[in-house]
Design brief:
This protein has about 200 residues and is mainly alpha-helical. Helices cover about 75% and strands about 0% of the residues. Helix 5 packs antiparallel against helix 10 and helix 9 packs antiparallel against helix 10.
Length: about 200
């Protein structure tokens, strides 16, 4: 183990980065505090000092990764002057889903949410709040979708994007297509954007 001086903030971030990489490759069930400590080049005691238990470390990894994705959404909305256009938001989803590490972490966290004591429901509600606020600013009342329609659109976009990310290789191959051709991703993203925008506006 190579030792070097780190600030507490640097040490904590390096531990989280090492844990995220290991968990994404091997699954949280195949990693532990000692393995994370070895990958980060710190002592087991230091990992315990910062995070206490392995479960708490996994929760911290998930919080950090989710915050990275929320910042992508915020950046997209800022670029669109606060208005969450369907094309822009689905592009954010697909940009997120090219991050294989995040997709594996997210999938595992959804399957083990009860064990971890975590939930993405509050984050999802915040996303819907932001979209509703943006739509209110640009659409007049008769054309404005209600909360239920906005929620349905968000669920449609998430289900389509995450489902495609998880199954794309085997599905495209099964249809006789090259799964490494990026044109298929662009084509699906365009189709999903059109469907989401159409449902949002009631077309």
């Amino acid at each position: 183990m190579t030792r070097r001086r780190r600030t507490p903030e640097q040490a904590r971030e390096e531990i989280l980065t090492a844990a995220a990489d290991l968990i994404a490759r091997h699954g949280p069930d195949g990693v532990g505090l000692r393995r994370v400590a070895g990958a980060a080049g710190v002592t087991h005691g230091l990992v315990t000092h910062y995070f206490g238990t392995y479960r708490a470390l996994v929760q911290a990894v998930l919080r950090r990764e989710n915050e990275r994705q929320r910042e992508r959404v915020r950046d997209r909305m800022r670029a669109d002057n606060g208005v969450p256009y369907a094309e822009g938001m689905t592009k954010v989803l697909f940009d997120t889903l090219t991050d294989a590490r995040y997709v594996r972490l997210w999938t595992w966290s959804q399957l083990h949410a009860d064990d971890l004591g975590t939930s993405s429901s509050a984050n999802l509600a915040e996303l819907v709040d932001a979209i509703e606020h943006g739509i209110r600013d640009v659409l007049p009342e008769p054309r404005r979708p209600d909360r239920a329609r906005i929620e349905a659109v968000v669920l449609l976009a998430l289900s389509g994007a995450y489902g495609y990310a998880l199954g794309r290789r085997s599905w495209l191959a099964g249809l006789g297509h090259d799964p490494d051709d990026p044109g298929h991703d662009e084509s699906f993203r365009t189709a999903l954007s059109s469907a989401v925008a159409a449902h949002l506006t009631g077309r």
